[in-house]
Amino acid sequence: MPKQNEAVSLRLITFHLLLLIVALILTGMPVASAAQSRDNSPSYSRLNTMGVFGAFSGDSSHILLGQAENRRLLSLGVAYSRRLAMNHEVSWQYDAEVVPVAMESDPLGLVVEQQTSPNTATYSYNSGPLTYCSPINTPYSETDPGTGTTYSGTVTISCHGRRWVAGEAISPAGLRWNFLPQHKTQFFVGAHGGYMYSTQEIPVNGGGSFNFTFDVGAGIEYYRSRNRSIRVEYRYHHISNNDSAQLNPGIDNGLIQVMYCFGFGRQ
């Protein structure tokens, strides 16, 4: 266990150093000439942007990497963007998100034992979160060595009920590209990397409370004015612990995010 904790600590230190280096490089990059925002067709692109957002996913499945099914995500957070470069075709931006409210929901298990011998009886009890929700039927037959009595029947395991786990997350490594920045309605793509900490192990017991996250997505940004806009985005969102815990089924979600954005400072 100490070696595992040391490995996790080393991963965290290395991860944060890399993020710091990336942030320093990105914030030091020259921004496109301000003359471009003062031409005859000024762009809808802010130098600095803050945003507040909500995101939700009602289900999970094996989209790409994750195995855990029927997980739900709910996030409330803030975002910061800084324009790195821009021309008439695209606006390239550094993008970071902080999520003080990161809720993850797991389906709980129900175990039903239907005994057929030596007498008929039914026993049921709840279990922890399950990776898969498809019912599993397993026959059994066991003999008590003390009495010689054979007990047989079927055990069925299925999902029943749900738990919500609170957490928080941060994605400090992110990039976004808005296309056709001179238009009020813009298509964009983006990606983020970070981590999530939860108050309980997710998505199953033994899965760990610390998980890495990444997402890639695309959406539409509509500018109500040059300093105000609304973004609607679909993301592929992944959560896993990189094998730093006993189990690592991973979670793949299709996430819908809505964000209200406003510019500040020099434009």
In short:
The protein has 267 residues and is mainly beta. The chain is 10% helix and 58% strand.
SSE blueprint and pairings:
Elements: H1 2-27, E1 48-57, E2 72-86, E3 90-117, E4 121-129, E5 136-143, E6 150-165, E7 167-179, E8 185-198, E9 210-225, E10 228-240, E11 251-263
What this model shows, in words?
By secondary structure, the protein is mainly beta. The chain has two domains: 2-107 and 164-263, Beta Barrel (Porin); 108-162. Helices cover 10% and strands 58% of the residues. The protein has one helix and eleven strands. Strands 1-2-3-7-8-9-10-11 form an eight-stranded antiparallel β-barrel. Strand 3 and strand 4 form a beta hairpin. The longest helix has 26 residues, at 2-27. It is elongated, with a radius of gyration of 25 Å.
Count of structural domains: 2
Percent of residues in helices: under 10%
Q: How many β-strand stretches?
A: 11
Instruction: Please describe the biggest sheet, giving its number of strands, its sense, and whether it closes into a barrel.
Output: 8 strands, antiparallel, barrel
SSE class:
mainly beta
Instruction: Give the N-to-C terminal Cα separation.
Output: 51 Å
Supply Rg.
25 Å
**Widest β-sheet, arrangement of strands:** 1-2-3-7-8-9-10-11
Low-confidence stretches: 1-10, 24-40
CATH topology of the largest domain: Porin
- Which strand-content bin applies to the residues? over 45%
- Average per-residue pLDDT, rounded, comes to 87
What general form does the structure show? elongated
| CATH arch. level architecture of the largest domain | Beta Barrel
Work out the helix count.
Answer: 1
Run of helices and strands: HEEEEEEEEEEE
- Report the CATH C-level class of the largest domain: Mainly Beta
Multimeric state: single chain
